[in-house]
Amino acid sequence: MDTQTIVILDFGSQYTQLIARRIREQNVFSVVLPCTALLAEIQAYHPIGIVLSGGPSSVYDADAPDADPKLLALGSPVLGICYGLQFIVHHLGGKVRPAPRREYGHAEVSVEDGATQLFDGLPASLHVWMSHGDEALELPSGFHRTAVTSNALAGIANEQRRIWAVQFHPEVHHTPLGPQLIKNFVFNICGARGDWTPAHFIESTVAQIREKVGKDHVICGLSGGVDSSVAAVLVHKAIGAQQTCIFVNNGVLRKNEFQNVQKNLRDKLGLNIVGVDASARFLEKLAGVTDPELKRKRIGAEFIAVFEDEAHRIARETGGPEGKLDWLVQGTLYPDVIESSSVKGPSQTIKSHHNVGGLPERMKLKLIEPLRDLFKDEVRRIGRDLGMSEEILGRQPFPGPGLAVRILGEVTPERVALLQEADEIVVAEIKAAGLYSKIWQSFAVLLPVMSVGVMGDQRTYAYTAGVRAVHSEDGMTADWVDLPAEVLKRISNRIVNEVRGINRVVYDITSKPPGTIEWE
């Protein structure tokens, strides 16, 4: 059965990924494309519906993000949200202007056309979240108002053209009945089946991998984390012994991680794993480097160099011509892609992920990224359907560049050893408090800050460790965790007493945004 897809065109909204999530929560696949996507790319998905996201710009500006207006005539139902509404009005002959009174935050919407499918089953008055400074002054021919606030138009429709739009944001939790509105669009208007389940994803992905790979041998970059482990098991299900997993010691793993991960994944998943201790060559590449982007890119490039070396060796062993092992499996997720690339609409690149933005341009290996369109919680659901244990699926995320992005400043063997000890204490105490599975990420950071301390009546001058713990749904946004004082006290006491070289511990209470989860 073909996968039904709803295409979301991104005009730069901070909420675009929430739209994707709300649709996927209905067991319907959604994909985010840049607003500049060609019609052919949009049509390639055979979309059962198209959503136009919000955005920070004004449609009448010369440099406003734009899309091909012909998409409005493809025949697929269209839902415009905020900027998406204004795009529709602007390109179909209406007028958009700066609003006499801008609307940001909570608002009350009155539904004028309760008969329209978009508002089916919704009350006449809705609490919504507004974020706009423009308004639709004149509607295009054939359109009518469906909702208003006390200040401005809030909804329009042209059922004959199968186009609906709202000025508010139904995707955010500040619009309590927003999920019902999105559900109306997805099912009542687009006619979705709602059958995009983990089992459906596994079945279709396995078939795609088999078709793509054929009889070739592939290598998988295994980190021991949830993403790469699920990717490895998924590919193993597709091609079995044609996959060899490479677990690389990049010199910036957690304490004892190199040994523990190999044993755990071999024993519990039955994967063919080759361990490569390349710590010396990674640390050599990181020597003297303090810029976080350069760290990520050097680590990404060195990972690929190691994988290509292993590909040559494995190709010889598997009987293929030297260097002809072409495929690399990675556990890239959607947030990795979004944060590493500015092609998703006019959004800004936040940082490079080594398995996306950190790859060298002339990489010889071709990528297989079976989880590229998924969020972390979706990956865990896939893993459960694959029969993977909660011990593996419940692991907190760990960055691809490892502790290198948690060591601010230069990465040296001595500083890595310090952070490994401090980080092990943080994780141990979080687990002892029964909080590990309730927290998205918890870890230690080594700061390039030294301060004076007193231990045993002697003056010390040592490093500062930061402790970070956050709640998140998918890594796109995060709130800091209000850890119990007793837990923080035990973490601080243990680090200062047990890790020689750290004499001060601080706790990070920054959310994302404005910060990021990792410090670099």
Structure characteristics:
single chain, 520 residues, alpha/beta, Rossmann fold, GMP Synthetase, Chain A, domain 3, globular
Task: Characterise this structure.
Residues 341-345 and 347-360 have low confidence and may be disordered. Helix 5 (198-213) packs across helix 11 (376-385) and helix 8 (279-286) packs antiparallel against helix 9 (292-317). The relative contact order is 0.09. The chain is built from 14 helices and 18 strands. With 520 residues, the protein is of the alpha/beta class. It has helices at 16-24, 39-44, 83-91, 178-189, 198-213, 226-239, 257-269, 279-286, 292-317, 334-340, 376-385, 390-393, 413-432, 485-498; strands at 5-10, 29-34, 49-52, 78-81, 95-111, 125-138, 144-148, 153-158, 163-166, 218-222, 243-249, 273-277, 327-329, 366-368, 441-455, 458-471, 479-480, 502-507.
Could you tell me the strand content as a percent range? 15-25%
User: Cα-atom Rg, whole angstroms?
Assistant: 25 Å
What is the CATH architecture annotation of the largest domain?
A: 3-Layer(aba) Sandwich
Oligomeric state of the chains?
single chain
Sheet having the most strands: 9 strands, mixed
The number of strands is 18
Mean pLDDT: 89
Give me the CATH fold name of the largest domain. Rossmann fold
Q: What is the percent of helical residues?
A: 25-40%
Count of helix runs:
14
CATH class group of the largest domain: Alpha Beta
Q: Reading side by side through the largest sheet, how are the strands ordered?
A: 2-1-3-4-9-8-7-5-6
